[in-house]
Amino acid sequence: MKTATLRYWAWLHKWSSLVCTVFMLLLCLTGLPLIFHHEIGHLLGTEVEAPQMPADTPRASIDKVLETAKARFPGKPVLYLSQEPDDDTFWYVSLADKLNETERFDVALVDARTAGLLGAPDYNQGFMFWMTRLHIDLFAGVPGMLFLGFMGLLLVLALVSGVVLYAPFMRKLEFGTVRSGRSARVRWLDLHNVLGIVTLGWALVVGLTGVVNTLSVPLVGYWQSTHLAPWLAQYKDGKPPSPDALASLERAAKAAQAAEPGMTISFVAFPGTISSTPHHYAIYMRGNTPLTSRLYQPVLADALTGKVVGSVPPPWYLNTLYMSQPLHFGDYGGMPMKILWALLDLITIVVLGSGLYLWLRKPRAVAQGAGHIHKGALS
User: CB–CB of 91/110 below 8 Å?
Assistant: First the structure.
């Protein structure tokens, strides 16, 4: 590769890396505890477990579950109802002061068998709250999410340009070589290159899925305004129902189950929330295999009658979003995958930190010559 071309890629790698490095370090540091959020929650006492009961214990009516949550947080409308993918013994019931809330919720954990209140942890404070908000949106809402998405794109650009620069470097040294007899800066350069290549695939996956996740709000909004238009057209002259006039969710859930046999209710978005419409329960069904359990089939039920009015096949971009969310945090393969994700996260922190060190310790000769071209490519 010509020197002029290498200099272009070096400039691209240098500035894409420098702009995003601090934010990527923040995301790696905050993402590490989020990989083990359930385990940390148990240690901190914020995770609640339902009591052991026989597997065939009858389920309580969802309406009773909602009554329990409303009694715990009187006067607040219910926004969402959800369950863990691998634990159907309790419901998360999310409430807030307004239907379009996207950041701060009150959450009641209600036993799915007895409709008894298991707890109401305050998820709006504490260590995990800070880690989550810093990782997702820097406490800046949607603008913060989109900003981090742009930083993720710069990371992908830095990775691609780094591979281009590493190609001529590999022709001079065997893969994995760390020149221990050279200066500290050269040793860190070799380590930066080797670890960067080792974690390349993982970093690309996590970076790209992270970018997709930051687009969740605009993607869902676009889906509402386009794919749900036929179901909204019939209500153009009607006012959204008040929370007190809603039909039985138990009846709507049974109708959705009948419409999509073989699937399980994952979560419900109430009318007026960001994941539904002003006139429907949006009941998100999931499959029962490791793959389909991460894909959702939204079923719309009329909020006044509880009758199913349509099943809306999610477009490709929502399926991409649904698949990206668990993949980003390594939620597919249990504890072994979480440990692997954590190790790769730690290695990536070393790569980012070493890149910052190499720039701060940049020799004058390099600044006057080829710039940051991974030195070995031109030496």
Answer: yes
119: region left, alpha or beta (phi > 0 left; psi from -120 to 50 alpha): left
**Angle, helix 3-35 to helix 127-136, in steps of 10 degrees:** 150
Q: How many Å apart are CA 195 and CA 190, to the nearest integer?
A: 9
Per-residue model confidence (pLDDT) at position 26 = 96
Between residues 202 and 7, which one has the greater pLDDT?
202
- Please tell me whether the overall predicted TM-score, pTM, comes out greater than 0.90 for this model: no
pLDDT at 201 over 70: yes
Of 155, 176, 192, the residue nearest 375 (C-alpha): 192
Find, among 171, 270, 277, the residue nearest to 224 by Cα.
277
Mean residue pLDDT of the chain comes to 86
Burial class for 201, CB neighbours closer than 10 Å (0-12, 13-18, 19+): exposed
Averaged pLDDT, 102-107: 89
Based on its alpha-carbon atoms, the radius of gyration of the chain, rounded to whole angstroms, reads: 25
> Which of 193, 198, 201 is closest to 372 using CA atoms?
193
Cα end-to-end distance, the chain, whole Å = 14
- Give the whole-angstrom CA distance, residue 120 versus residue 110: 9
